[in-house]
Amino acid sequence: MVDVQIVLGSESDLGHAKKCKEQLEQFGIGAEIAVASAHRNPEKLDALVKGSSAKVFIAMAGLSAALPGTVAAKTIKPVIGVPLNVKLEGLDALLSSMQMPTGVPVATVAIDGAKNAGILAAEIIALSDQRVAKKLADYKAGLAKK
Asked: In this structure, are residues 24 and 57 in contact, taking their beta carbons and an 8 Å threshold?
């Protein structure tokens, strides 16, 4: 089962998506990666979002980073934006992802924060999944020991 849908604006962002997916897999969470640009293929993105059974979306994009906001506009499920450092040290993508209008929220992690996006998605899923909650608690305990 796919609990998290990871959406990329470009195949060049695949390395970030793989880090996020690996983080999710540590918590036993199924994730799927898809490339669907908000600008170059909006019909594909629309079909992907509307057809997904995922509980959480993670949208990764650089430059103007319209992808997280576009996904959020198409669903009532939580959307986590990952701004990517493509130009301007990622500041353009960060501002695009976090400056959303009222009613279309995007939870935004740090620039290139793919692993944190996976952890935040796990925390959302853990609200209704005790198995994931236990794995998260163990993970956080391990961080404290470091």
From this structure: no
Contact 98, 109 (CB under 8 A): no
Q: What is the pLDDT of residues 37-86, one digit of tens each?
A: 998 999 999 999 999 999 999 999 988 789 999 999 999 999 999 999 98
Strands, sheet with 56-61, edge to edge from the N-terminal-most edge strand? 31-35, 4-8, 56-61, 79-83, 107-108
Mean pLDDT over 119-130 rounds to: 98
- Domains in the chain, start-ordered, CATH in brackets? 4-145 (3.40.50.1970)
56-61 and 107-108 beta bridge pairing: unpaired
Encoded tokens for 48:
């992907």
Token pair, residue 22, equals 């690996």
> Which amino acid appears at position 34 of this protein?
A
- φ and ψ of 126, to 5 deg: -65, -20
